[in-house]
Every structure is written in structure tokens, then in C-alpha cells.
User: Fold this.
Amino acid sequence: MMNFNSYDIYLIGDKKFFKNDDEYLSALDESFSNGVKAFQLRQKDITASDFVKIGKNIKNNILKKYPEVKFFINDRVDAALSISADGVHLNINSIPIKTVKKKFKNLKIFYSSHSLEEAVKAEKDGADFITFSPVYKTEKQDFFYGADVLKKVVDTLRIPVYALGGINASNISEVKQTGCRYIAVQSAILSKKNIGKEVKNLLNILNK
Assistant:
């Protein structure tokens, strides 16, 4: 059984931060070598075939060096199966959680929740983990829930809750005070010049 107790950071990967695939793969390599143990491939602006191609490239050329890293695919169950990923990350517009759990028992499921009610339903339907967002303000959204609502979600659910949305080194301490032990990030790692240093910094704050 997959154990996420020590997987503090869930890295959501999008190559938009990089000039080319080589830079992207190098950044992922640096992230994994410095302690990231869970990764989601998220790429909405490419075809399904290109998505599978880059997924297989990551799995065969990067993740083979890090067998402890769990590999999730955003939304596309078919791609997750084709790539032999560990799981899939679903949302309100995806195939229902119950359907995926019934047909593909080996796939672990993350679910993107944006309210306490949605989070509770995801757990009831069989999600293994959820992200809850947005906890803080992001570049794309002015609306955010804040730490108090995150605490309600963490206190209510039994499955791991990953805080998502505007998470960075300056607010992780507040996230921890809610009882949330896990964070999901993208730009907080991938937009940094020294990715390895930033991963270690985030892990150090989480584990204090």
C-alpha cells in the first residue's frame, strides 16, 4: 500500500516555466533528488499523444532513478494507464471517483476540492488524498479561503489533505498550525533559480 506519511510535498509540474523539455526534465530531476516524493504531470495545452509522450519521457528517463517517487497524472485516466502511473488527479469535471476506483483498483486518486462539502464527498466516494484550494491568494485568483477554512477541512477529513494555492516558504508555518501536514506546490519550486535549495528549504520548514 502506498504510504504518504513522509511525502510532505506534492509537486504539480507544468513545463510552462521552462524554455524546453530538457530544462523541464532537469528541474524535475533536481526536485526529486532533493526530496520531492510525489509528482503530478499537469499539461493542459498539448494533445493527448504529446501528453503521453512527455509522461513516458519523465517516467523512463527521470523517475527510474527515483523509484520512491509516486507519479500522478492530471485528469486523464487513459494517460495514467498508458504511462503506468501510480495514480490520477481528478476534479469535478473528471470521470467520477467511484467509477475509477471500481474499474482501476490499482490507481490511487487525488481529488481537487474547493469547499468543505466537496472534500467530504470526495472522501466518501473513495479518494485517497485531496488538495484543498485556494488557501491563499494566487496570481490567477483574488479569492481564497485562508487558514481557518483549511483547518475545518483537515479536522473533518480522515484522508490526507494537501494545502494548495499560494503556498510558499512564508506561509507554511501558518499551514502547519491548522494541523495540515502536506502541501501541494508548483511555482514555489519550479519558478525558482535554485530548485534544489528551495525544495530543501520547504522541507525544512515543514519538518521543524
